[in-house]
């Protein structure tokens, strides 16, 4: 099942891929793992939806997350990824994202929606930062996978009226949002530490990856997080 | 969000639908609920898959379950279904299917796969029996929704070697398969009792629905179940 696709866009002389493609392949593996994780999370959210229309909407959004997966895998194989090693990479990124999920067990539907919006918002931003160093076809397939598929709007539309109407819930969700971003930044730090080859491709990382890069990246993730909290009218 | 679709294939004189379409709409609601349930179950199976290729395969099969949903809903609305009443019907069938899931908590991956194959096999057969009385466009959309989407083959391919290699596991799975079919027939009985308008459309139910019809239907479901157990080489 994991036979490599024909490497349609490899160098015509059939040379092995340059060693710099190792980081590129790892970033694509992270993107693939992110899609599987988004599918699983939205499907699980759908299964917990309190009414039919929300359930159908979230189920469809989940299904939509899988659409770009094939192209991402195909691109990684075209770059010369060994199929088994690629599967191992995707699986290990998946485990990192599953850990993030396991650490944040929502107590109710509203915490669940905040986790989806805030938590996967930061995971998506992180992936975009790391994919920013991609070019050509890799950049294309990653961009399609990381595009806004509309679940943020769905979640915000569901949460906003409840947050406006119930100050006590809003206070609890603000606290929860801070816990979620804390775990998100924790995952980010772990990912950058364990996968320096991925970090090396990140936006602004021309030259070796330094503590300053990590600080700048964390700053950007935090400010995007603050924007999301503000959109929900929650104290960041 | 639940605004009715234009009733493109209603009678051109705009007359209200005949009362016989009530049963037809209910069967379509059951089919829609079945697709949502299959999506949720396969997505949950995918989330528990022990390795990447199975996870991707089951995630994609889950997504495929949603594809015919829009056409089923559209057809029910074209038959004159009130959007809110239709949502309520789908939701109540969903609850019945969720009860089936809640009663059968698999202890491991293999029991999970047997539950998917045996349990949803019987649920699918039941839906096919009840949809057999549909005609025209309703028949078409139900047939597309209830078509074999290949997950049976995936599950059988995964289970067969393990069952052949581990007699003790095979014995446990045979017991579990019998529990699953018991719950499946229980759900069937409850559905037929609570929804006589659905039962009235079932295969062979020309005229009022009688205990003999129920017996005949149960017999057909049981023999299809036996065929599946045999395919897994489990004692029915």
UniProtKB/TrEMBL annotation, chains A, B:
Residues 1-21 are annotated as: Disordered. It comes from Litorihabitans aurantiacus. This is Hydroxylase. InterPro entries: Ferritin-like, Ferritin_actino. It comes from the Bacteria. Residues 25-201 form the Ferritin-like domain.
């Amino acid at each position: 099942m994991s036979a490599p696709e024909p490497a349609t866009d490899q160098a015509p002389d059939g040379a092995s891929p340059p060693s710099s493609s190792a980081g590129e392949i790892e970033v694509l593996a992270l993107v693939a793992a992110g899609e599987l994780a988004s599918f699983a999370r939205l499907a699980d959210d759908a299964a917990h939806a309190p009414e039919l229309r929300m359930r159908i909407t979230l189920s469809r959004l989940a299904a939509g997350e899988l659409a770009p997966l094939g192209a991402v895998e195909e691109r990684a194989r075209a770059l010369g990824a060994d199929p088994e090693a690629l599967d191992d990479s995707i699986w290990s990124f998946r485990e990192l994202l599953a850990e993030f999920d396991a650490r944040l067990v929502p107590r109710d539907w509203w915490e669940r929606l905040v986790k989806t919006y805030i938590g996967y918002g930061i995971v998506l931003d992180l992936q975009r930062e790391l994919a920013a160093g991609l070019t050509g076809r890799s950049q294309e397939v990653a961009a399609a996978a990381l595009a806004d598929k509309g679940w943020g709007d769905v979640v915000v539309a569901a949460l906003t009226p409840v947050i406006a109407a119930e100050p006590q819930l809003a206070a609890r969700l603000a606290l929860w949002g801070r816990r979620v971003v804390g775990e998100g930044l924790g995952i980010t730090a772990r990912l950058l530490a364990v996968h320096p080859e991925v970090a090396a491709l990140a936006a602004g990382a021309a030259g070796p990856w330094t503590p300053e890069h990590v600080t700048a990246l964390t700053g950007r993730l935090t400010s995007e997080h603050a924007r999301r909290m503000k959109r929900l009218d929650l104290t960041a």
